[in-house]
Lytic polysaccharide monooxygenase
Amino acid sequence: MHINALLFLALAGLTQLCSGHMHLHYPPTLKGENNPFTQGESDPYLNYNYGCCGREVPGPCKGHLDLVDTNEGKPVVTWSPGQKVNFTLSGSSTTDVKGGTHYGGSCSVGFSTDKGKSFKVATTWNGDCPHREGSIDPSTQSFDFTIPADLPSGDRTIFAWTWVNREKEFNMNCAVVTIAGSDGSQDPGGQPASSSAASKPSPTSSTVPKQSSAAPSQPLKSQSPEPPLQPTQTQPSSAQPTNSAQYTLEGCTCSCPYQTWSSACSCFECKSPTTKRHLIERKVLELHKRHVQNAEKLNVPVRRAEAVAWNSRPDMLLSIDFPGASCHSKGNPFELEFPDPGPDVVAGDGEYELATPDCT
């Protein structure tokens, strides 16, 4: 009995050490609990860093590339080349100050057009990823980027997110997306084309803002999950406005005037009943006003972008900070500076000095 108790405590301690991290929340990652195509149990290790807890180091995408051509690998969102989109992160609660968001780190996102044989960089965040002023709630961890204009179209393109924190831990999650053909679906004004998500509603209610990468000055309160809504075919209340900030909430895509105050926001492409649309528009308006307030308080990260052909973009750094990896970051007090960040780089807030990794 005494031995069993000690074993239980040891396992509990190991779980605590390995569970306080972040994972890709939107678009829903392969085997994620909010992925409408996940079958059976979701992956309980999505938050865990590679090499954690004595487990064998998984391959790219947490070892779930074998699902891409199955029903579990159906695309969860449709994006278009040149479109401005966003992703969000979510985490597990922990009392360890090194857990959860780890108060930052560095991230990179990219795509694979060959079923995971190679991954090319789209955008890099050197520092402040996840947002230091955010929490483990995905509504406080939103990052915007632009789909490369010449990214090849495909029904099952893999979107990848990687993260290296100051504790020298690496994590990677992937989502399957559709990249629409570059056939003029983007409007002449250069505004982003609307995204279409998977038809099955997410088990949880979450916000997906699509405008600014600035973190909120105060963590936003989580919304209580509502029962999943049955999809209802409705006509858009109006055409998608240009020069607008977009949000996805409770099955609706909504627009508000970009970076400005507004007395109202409009929702379209709703899967929610028409009778609830005005309530959703009210919620989106409050969320938009908070984002505008926070954007005014914070310095918008500096973005450097160049025109580089997709095939000429660097490969994503996937072998770092786990047993047997070819690269190792310096760790505290430095945040990782990706050695090959690609043409679209978002600078951090400068709170931690950046350092490139040692690679063999």
